[in-house]
Here is the input.
Amino acid sequence: MPIQLTSQAYCKMILHAAKYPHCAVNGLLVAEKTKEKKKDSHSEPVLCVDCVPLFHGTLALAPMLEVALTLIDTWCKENNYVIAGYYQANERTKDSRPNQVAEKVAARISENFSEAAIVMVDNSRLTMSCFEPIVHIYDHHENKWKNRDITSDCFEDWSEAQKITSALLEGRSYENLIDFDNHLDDLRNDWTNPVINKSVLDLC
Here is the structure.
């Protein structure tokens, strides 16, 4: 079951990368928890309904990551979500391959969610209009992370995702995006990003 991105999940990943263009950024993708399906009905994609921006700058701080994972896991349980993937944008513009940090965190996620994927944001293609998808999706096959061809099937609705992302980039909404680093700086900062979620909803 490959993952599929909603407009909200895609948009927030891109805004996170746009807010910190000089830094590496990362975060988690969440999907709605579904009942276990029969083995033969695994063609339905896993719909990632939202993402939680984690850090910018230093991505490999284990204690902070543990705190974030614990809090987000609790939030997921309360909202009937499951952590379904990991996203990252690398610091170097021309580098959009998963590194050791990405593979480690994704391996940890796949212990609880076997369909987990890595989404890499390609900073070199980040523009205001974002006419084409600027992500690479890696699925886990035969103990390796393999790059999947990006088609409109990777999105719940690509034309909507493109339109909303472009509108929010133009409106500089990324300035309001809160990641876990911002939350740790000031606990009043809400990493669920209700303001941006509302903006996405208003544009749907």
